[in-house]
Amino acid sequence: MSTAVPSSERGWRRPLAALRRKAMGGPLALVGVAVALFAVLAWAGPAQAGPPVHWTVPVSTKPADIQAGNVLFNEHCSACHGVGAVGASAPSLLNVGPAAVDFFVATGRMPLNSPKAQPMRNKPYFSPKQIAEIVAYVNALDVAHGTPGPGIPNVVAACKTQSAECPTLSEGNQLFLLNCAQCHDASGSGGMLSQGYVIPSLRDATATQVAEAIRVGPRPMPNFGPGQLTDQQVMAVADYVTWLSHRPDRGGLGIAHFGPVPEGFVAIIFGLGILLVISRLIGNRG
Fold this sequence. Notes:
single chain; two-stranded antiparallel ribbon; mainly alpha; Cytochrome Bc1 Complex, Chain D, domain 2
C-alpha cells in the first residue's frame, strides 16, 4: 500500500533536487576536463627537449682557409714551432686545440720575439680573418694526428635563474673568488708572482678569451679541465669577469675599480689629517 506525498512536500523537494544536481555538476565537469587533458598529454607523448647547447664554436674546415693558415703559419710561426707545428725552440702545437691558438694570437701574445719570454697581452698582429685561418690550419693538423685539444668556447649570456644551459653571475662570482681571485685579485686587476711572472689584468679580456684561458692555462696559470670546471661553470666565470670589468662605479670614484675600500682609505687619511689639524689649531688657541 503506497502512501501519497502531499503536494506541499513535493513542492519544496523539487528545488532541492535541482540544487543537488547543480552542486554535482561542477566537480563532474572538473573531472571530465582532467580526463580529457590527461588523454591529450598521453597521446602527445613526452615533451621534446630543446636544441642542445653548443659549448664550442665550430672551426672552419674549408681547404682554402686551411691553406691560407698554412702560409701564415710558415711565415710567422714555424721559426719557433717548427714546420707542421711539430715543435722546435717552442713547444709542439699538435695537441693544443683551437682554443689555445685563438687565445694566444687574438690577444697579441703571439708571435713572440723570444720563446723564453712570458707572453703578454698586446695588440693583435693578425686580422680576425687571418686568426681564423691560422686556427683552421692548426686544428686540421690536430685532427690529422688524432689529438685535438679544447675547442673555442661559445660563451652564453648569464641568466637570472640558473639552469643547465644558462649560468648566473652569482655562480660566476663564487667560482671566481674560489679559483681566480688569489692571483688576479678580487677586482680582476692582476698582480705579480715570484720569478718575475706578471698576472695580467682582466679589464680588456673578452668573455671568450677568459673562457679560453681557463681551458688552456697560459703560464703561470694552471688549466682547468672538464673534471674541475664544467662548461657551464666556465661560462659563469667568463660572464662574471665581463660584468666585473664593465660594471658602473657607484657612489664615487672608481679607484682601481675595487669598490668602496680604496675610497674608504682615502677618506680616512684625509679626514683624520684634517681633524688632526683642526684639533691642533683649537688646542693652540685654548
